[in-house]
Specification:
Radius of gyration: 21 Å
Number of strands: 17
Strand content: 15-25%
Strand order of the largest sheet: 2-4-6-8-7-5
Shape: globular
Largest sheet: 6 strands, mixed
Number of domains: 2
Distance between the termini: 38 Å
Structural class: alpha/beta
CATH architecture of the largest domain: 2-Layer Sandwich
Oligomer: single chain
Helix content: 25-40%
Amino acid sequence: MLPKPSYDSLANNRPKRIVDDILVLSKLDSNLLQICPSPVEAMTILRNVDKMFEAEAARECVDIAVKADESLAKMSVDWLLLDHGRIDQILINLITNAIKFTKNRDIRNINICMGASEQRPSETDLAVNFDVDFTLGQSMRDSIYDTPEFAVDNEIFLWFAVQDTGRGITDEEKSRIFGRFAQASPRTYTEYGGSGLGLYISHSLVGLQGGEIGVATKPGVGSTFSFFVKTTRCPAPVLDVTHMSIVANRTRDPTKTNGSAKGRISVLIVEDNLLNQRVLKKQLSKHYDVSTADHGQEALDFLKTTRNWSQQPHVDKYVDVILMDLEMPVMGGLECSRTIRDLQRSNFLRGHIPIIAVSANARPEQINEALEAGMDDAISKPFRIPDLVPKIERLVHSAKAPH
């Protein structure tokens, strides 16, 4: 078996990254990129960002500080209805850029702040100049505000600021950084790489979530990119503490069939390392019903034998959530996830099966790629089960797929 490519080599593969960005652009142009909100504990966003960039910041000798603005406590912000993956995608683009333009400076500081507002933030509030005034995205309106269970009285605005001590941007460069295939200057690609689509994609994702994005910058001093999204308060998922599974409105018989307790969350682990697979199965079996597959093709074959498959309505097996390794023989996690989403769109698979990317020391580029392939969230190895369980619970709760 050929060795798996290193994450550094993947991250430095400029043509591949450009192709990935163009695929996202194609989805945007075809109106195929959807916002899929689910209940999210706001503070988990900051915690995830801190962990996500810890290794890269240390390697580049960049000091990253993550802060919760006092407005979160004043407004008692807790659970919100958000597309966590798309928020992460925007932050990944902004923080990756901040590291890229700061790592060779004498002062290498990046500050990330999250706050909230009851009123739509203005340029003065966030101390930036907005690029374009966005209205509430149609996909967001349809999925949240037209549903009776979430009253408009609960809506708030969640904002983020990413401040760096990088090279800064001139007024001329500033006028084109949010454009398609645009970078600050012709030298930017030669010195730093990239496709010139990261900020354009972030700009579009912010707009789909009813927000705006802008920048304040000074050449030689640094830049601050700030954005906000429109969201709404929501109740926390109700958990059964005894079994660590969500109390969902399932109609399954509580008796056991084929040794599996119906009514419990069913997890499919797709992992080619058999030792990792066995250890994870043993740990998760305390909380869930667990099945395994050695690679992506085996996972697809397994799904065809479950109730998730539209032609198998009466079988007992089902899958609530998939833990997907990214790099595997036969079929990798990205290809498998894309195939699963295609099968769902074609109605061969029922509902939305949440997929969590599982990979060792995943860089932001790999997490971004996983989200674009149709995965819903990610976790890096090594991880603790108490960190994985909330992700499983949240995603299964939001999917609400009948079985």
